[in-house]
Write a structure and sequence with these properties.
- There is one protein chain.
- The protein is of the alpha/beta class.
- The protein contains 23 helices and nine strands.
- Helix 1 crosses helix 6 and helix 11 packs across helix 23.
- It starts with 13 loop residues before the first helix and ends with a helix.
Length: about 425
């Protein structure tokens, strides 16, 4: 299919968008994989439908605002990519489209929505601010009727309590003979909502002969900004990390699927800038911690708890779909004696977290979260594990609503506990 998009008229991101549009043959294989198509049952809320809408907008035949509601409803879960026989790089279209629209001011939003997005952008990527914001949100729950409706999802999602802050050591030496040296992205929301994930990650890596560096100057991966169309903020975060991470390490590790996916897109975020080449080289060094451990191999097998336990594994969208990582976390979990790994039905469907999606589209996110919680409960597992802080937070919230005692843990936490940590 030939397209009539003029890439040069949409800046550096025009070419990737045009190529993604051209690759789509409208076969419809993506429909069954798309959570929002399952929710709304409308063609325009499917990947195929959104591609048509975005194509028409980029060609100048449709107003930007006409596509806005349907593009906003997209989770960006990328379940459409592995389902697509034509290899459409949907990621090269969605976030760039949102970025171009925001740069041009094409999507006017209500003042309360702009305020909510601004508050999220100014707090979540900064752990200190985020911790203060959550304290304020807990207080704000007492005055919920006075809070504008558009801001209430922020109150509803605030946890009742957050763990104490943890100061990670800049360097953690390998135990025994050093097999590798890595740098770890600590994340932003993760440091506040569940700092033990980083502690567990470092413990497991060190135990397996891997020296871990946590660069002081690192910051947010930029994923939240990128997925909401704030290109300038995403570029600033990307440049900060390009400068912060050392070159003399074997890999740059992430333990949050969304962060790893965003860092793999630094070449796109910085496309057309002087940093594009550096970004492309940088992204090739970024590896999920489960992949790195699976490659290098566990030097010491976990001991297990001495009793059988059933653990359900939830595929984080930006690990399974964006990075193609499915088997490695399962392989690590199966290495724990006595652990029975359970698969979750409809594993390809997003849990509804998707960055700030549960703030922007709370009803849809809640529906998907409730479905995922029911699917986890159906496994009969005592623990559900995943590799992304957003998924873990969403699962925990919706499992708690059912009164379920199922524990929600990161893959590295389960592995660390398997060592008796």
């Amino acid at each position: 299919m030939l397209h009539s998009i003029k890439p040069e008229s949409h800046g550096p991101l025009g070419r990737p968008m045009a190529d993604a549009v051209q690759a789509c043959v409208h076969c419809g294989f993506c429909l069954a994989a798309c959570p929002t198509y399952q929710e709304f049952g409308q063609e325009m809320d499917s990947p195929r439908g959104r591609i048509v809408l975005m194509k028409q907008v980029l060609e100048g035949g449709l107003p930007w605002a006409a596509a806005q509601p349907h593009v906003d409803r997209c989770l960006g879960c990328l379940a459409c990519e592995p389902a697509c026989p034509s290899g459409v790089a949907y990621r090269d279209l969605l976030s760039p489209f949102r970025a171009v629209a925001q740069e041009r001011g094409e999507f006017p939003r209500p003042p309360a929505e702009r305020l909510r997005r601004w508050l999220a952008a100014q707090t979540i990527p900064f752990p200190g601010r985020f911790r203060l914001a959550l304290a304020g949100a807990r207080l704000g729950k007492f005055f919920r009727p006075l809070v504008p409706k558009m801001l209430r999802p922020m109150l509803d999602l605030a946890p009742a309590a957050v763990p104490p802050a943890v100061k990670l050591p800049r360097v953690t030496p390998a135990q025994g003979e050093r097999r590798a040296r890595v740098a770890l992205l600590a994340g932003c929301a993760q440091q506040v909502l569940d700092p033990d994930i980083n502690v567990a990650t470092i413990t497991v890596l060190a135990r397996n002969g891997i020296e871990v560096i946590v660069p002081d100057a690192q910051g947010c991966c930029g994923g939240l900004a990128w997925h909401t169309g704030d290109l300038r903020a995403a570029q600033a975060f990307a440049r900060r990390n390009l400068a912060a991470f050392p070159a003399d390490v074997d890999a740059i590790l992430t333990n949050a699927a969304g962060c790893g996916s965003a860092m793999h897109e630094y070449h796109l975020i910085l496309r057309g800038t002087a940093d594009e080449g550096r970004a492309d080289a940088f992204r090739k060094r970024v590896v999920d911690v489960s992949v790195f451990l699976a490659r290098i191999g566990l030097r010491e097998a976990p001991r297990g708890s001495g009793r059988a336990q059933k653990v359900a594994y939830h595929d984080a969208c930006h690990l399974a779909n964006a990075q193609g990582v499915r088997e490695e976390p399962r392989k690590l979990l199966r290495a724990i004696p006595g652990l029975e790994l359970c698969e979750v039905a409809d594993a390809h469907l997003c849990c509804g977290s998707a960055g700030t999606y549960n703030l922007d589209q709370p009803a849809t996110a809640a529906s998907l979260g409730a479905q995922k919680a029911r699917a986890v409960l159906a496994t009969g597992a005592a623990v559900v594990a995943s590799g992304n802080i957003g998924c873990l937070t969403q699962l925990r919230a919706h499992l708690e609503k059912t009164g379920s005692p199922v524990r929600v843990r990161h893959t590295m936490q389960v592995l660390r506990d398997g060592y008796g940590g």
